[in-house]
Amino acid sequence: MKFSAQLLITTLSKSTTHISIFILSIILSRYFTKDDYGTYLHVQMIANISIWAFLLGIPHGIYYFLPRAESQRNYVLTTLAMIGSIAVIVSSVVFYNSASLSDLLTNPRINDLSCILLCLVLVQIPLTVFEPLMLTARRVKEFAGIELFFNVSFFAAVAIPVFLDHAMVEILWWLVGVYSIHSVIVLYYTLLIAYSYKSPQKEGDKFALKDQIKYTLPIGLSMNVMEMSRYVDKIVVSNQSSPEEYALYARGAMEIPVIGIIANTLDNLLMPSFVQAYKDKKIDEIILIWHASIRLMAAFIYPCCLFLICSAPLLIPAIFSEKYIGSVIIFQIYTLGLISRISTFDIIMRAIGRTKDIFWITLLAVFTNLVLTLVLMKLWGLIGAPIATVLTMLVMRLCYLKAITSLFNIKINDVFPWNSIFKSLVISCISSIPVLLLYQFSFNVWVQLLVMGVSFSLCYLLLLNVITSLTNQDKDSIREFLPRRIKWIL
Questions:
Q1: How far apart are the C-alpha atoms of 461 and 475, rounded to whole Å?
Q2: Is residue 29 in some structural domain?
Q3: Which of 181, 204, 233 marks a domain boundary?
């Protein structure tokens, strides 16, 4: 199977995960009280941090060691044993420290859910080997199909008990049951792949446990820091407020799934080009590719950013109900962070092999976010947290920019196609005017949002063709992904 086809299949399978989680967030925010929803989110946050922050980089090591291992069967079985041991240890630590977690998140109900937390962590950690193992064994189609089943069953495990009017605790137990089934399936495929390797490779290498740790531990530490960078503001908000306020914050501090999916897909598509250009020492070519990616990202993200900010007073209550009207300002501030999201900073750092720099910059981001969130929440309450997060993302991206410009020995003026960026931002701002004018009218909220979206899109596309922020080559690249009947819009 071609690489592009593999990329498309894996991207689509991951997209269904993000979309199903977003849809469930809509359902649960409407079904639960804010206290129940805040507690549900706390359980998920604890589980996610516990699952991904203590893996020691072992799942990522599969990509490197499995193809090279002399005895691939032994490597897979050893990896399975290590992951199983980590699952038992981490889940036990979470269980016995549930009271401390309750105090940290100022939510006494967490202690009552210690058994659920133990089970969720125990059965989900083994799932982390599934993707690297299946992709390395070149079982991409099987992986995509099973991943789709996982996503559908996860969605059903939450949606069905909701429609049956079950309590929040019962829904969490349903999730434990579904994840247990997922773990059994992963165990089956892990053993199946392990025993498909019948004899040692003649040209394979022997890897001692210390060799694996030496390779995977730096990755694991980086994953630790990156995982904490995702949740540090949420932990501080939980510590400084009630579960109800945390629910308000969580519904505002989110990214619409399609934005992240498209941005990450573009990153993945450009990664091989960056790697090859750097290998060939063609810095000018890297800059050209980088400029093209920035123009495309700005042309997509800036209109999304402006439209979401302008329509948020209608959009957030329409999606999550009037209970979450307080999330509007948080969402608007958080969405401002998209303005600096137009470049693939970390992808370039990975392409040129500066993974240690990524680790230190991410560590700085965790510390910065922690300090800023504590300080700004004391000054401005709950809205201080999204401001701190946006400022932290800006600092982190400026650090990446500083590192890259130093390595490439170029000036910041040469990094960005400033003219194109400015045009995209101006076009997006002008296109927002019809959206703001439509607030004068009062009719069905979904019809109003639809009219706003159509008005914004038409205005933006018209201005994009008049005030060109994209090159002809950029437009050709976009046209390739458009259906034949609408290629004329560019």
A1: 12
A2: yes
A3: 233
What pLDDT digit, counting tens, does each position of 89-122 carry?
999 999 999 999 999 999 999 999 999 999 999 9
For residues 324 and 399, membership in a common domain is answered with yes
Is 247 inside any structural domain? no
| Residue 239 belongs to some domain of the structure | no
Q: Please compute Rg for the chain using Cα positions.
A: 24
DSSP code string of 202-222: TT-B---HHHHHHHHHHHHHH
Q: In total, how many domains does the chain have?
A: 2
Q: What are the tokens at 364?
A: 């700085």
Residue 483 burial by CB count (10 A; 0-12/13-18/19+): exposed, middle or buried? exposed
Structure tokens at 285: 């070519």
Q: What residues contact 323, with CB distance under 8 A and at least 6 apart?
A: 29, 34
**Any idea which of 75-79, 97-101, 310-314, 346-350 has the lowest mean pLDDT?**
346-350
Question: Are residues 48 and 100 both part of a single domain?
Answer: yes
Tell me which of 291 and 100 has the higher pLDDT.
100
| Final residue of a structural domain among 233, 264, 290 | 233
DSSP 33: -
Same domain for 206 and 257? no
pLDDT by residue (tens digit) across 134-160?
888 888 778 888 888 888 899 999 999
Per-residue tokens: 204: 């394979």
- The sign of the CA dihedral 158, 162, 168, 170 is negative
Domain that holds residue 402: 253-489
In order of 86, 91, 103, 119, 340, the CA distances from 100 in angstroms are 21, 15, 5, 18, 37
pTM of the full structure: 0.83
Torsion of CA 114, 21, 229, 395, to 10 degrees: -160
**Residue 205 φ/ψ, nearest 5 degrees:** -110, 150
